[in-house]
Amino acid sequence: MWVVADDQSINVVESPEFRELLLFLGDGKLEDRDIPHRDKMTSMILDAHALEYQKMRKDLKNALGRISFTMDLWTDPNLTPFMAVTAHYYARKPDEGIAYRSGLVAFHYTPGGHSGDELSQHFFKIMDDLDVLHKIGSLTMDNASNNNTLMAAIELKLQELDIPFSADGNRIRCFPHVVNLACGAIIQELKKLATEKATNYEFDYIIDQPDWHLYLDALESDLIARVRALVAACRKSSQRRQDLQKIIREGNNKGLWAGKIRNPFPKDDPNVLRPLQLLRDCETRWSSIYLMITRFLYLYPAIQMFLLERSQSDLRDCLLDEHEISVLEDIHQVLHVAHLVQELLSGERTPTLSIALPTYELLISKWKDLKRTIPELAPFIGQGIRKIEEYMAETRKSRIYAHAMDEQKAAKKARDDAEDISIVERELLMWETDSLLTVPSFGDLTSFWAQWIYYQLKHLRDLVAQELDYTLEGGVTDAAFSELYDGGKFKELEELLANLEVSSS
Fold this sequence. Notes:
- Helix content is 54%, strand content 10%.
- By secondary structure, the chain is α/β, with parallel strands linked by helices.
- The chain folds into 4 domains: 2-46, no CATH class; 62-173; 177-403, no CATH class; 423-504, no CATH class.
- α6 runs antiparallel to α13 (378-395) and α12 (356-373) packs antiparallel against α13.
- It is found in: Nucleus.
């Protein structure tokens, strides 16, 4: 129904204009009594919900194996709290085979407190209503402390029903959230430097480097907070936004940005700025600080010109000098690595459980490299590394990650085995498809050998002559070729081909 799908008010069906529109579209085949009023619409929605809910319960009950769930809390603009639960499972297809399915199974109103015990009661009720308590597999959620209590409470309730469940073993910690917490630790430590003395940090090994004090001054100025304030100032009014866009366009027309654009978009003209707006960060949005800095650095040539205009004289103190921009780029580089990892682990349709631990290790490795290349930021990067290691220790309490990696390895082997067709076999298939070769009669192969268009078979004569002695005055006899083909000795031919390619290279 459009009313539900588009989140419309049920009262929309009472609008005279809306009803007239439907009658007009009905072209005389629809009367006013055919259009439901709000009471009827409410009844239809509730009936449809009951029907779909029972269908969903049946699908979940018939799921193959256990069902994995993801759970998170959400608050609407009126600060009304809800618990959203999605299910992920395998089901048998009507014809044959199995299919992966996922979908929202609950959007549950959660009044009152949000302690782990209280949230576990809401979750337990959802599972009980769906009749899947005995099929609960893994539960994915963020790393909030109340979720630890929630998992312990669920474990206790299920054990009372003799249903196996482990608060640690059946829990999957949200991977991108872990990365976000690590970035938050780095940013928080940078913020502390602006209010604490630098002697609290391990800077002794770089204290005598040239320009160190300039770098330290830039860090102590709280660059991220300054960027945030500057973005807010540039977005404060529609007039300022329009003025910035005007400067971008004029600069493009006059070629003012040549050689000044940092990190241009791929395939873009590196001397032309896109007419984009600055981005604000949001505490609850992952990578938002990274994205804010990315856009700021990209547009900074235009921002700088904008702030130097006479009409914006009150904003000139917000300008960053070139040294401060360089330090900001270092911070951006640290966050960029984490952003790439976060994007990799945020796949919606691609299973990422098997790569979680290896990706954490990769992030730690890259951050350790940056500690060496940007030693000025080493103490702050170390905070992020410690946060990742902290959650890796929690993650290793569950064997599900090892199982996922093992399953991924087995699935890859199965795919490789299914695609294991030799090079020569594929090439012969191409010949047959193009009607260049008729099997089993090959004709006089040596007479048109020079016309063969496929790379692998161009070398086959020399291979066979060299390795199998199926030659007649340096050429391959039709009988020899037929014997190899009809005998299904494609692997042997492929090995010969590989030997030739190695020797020729």
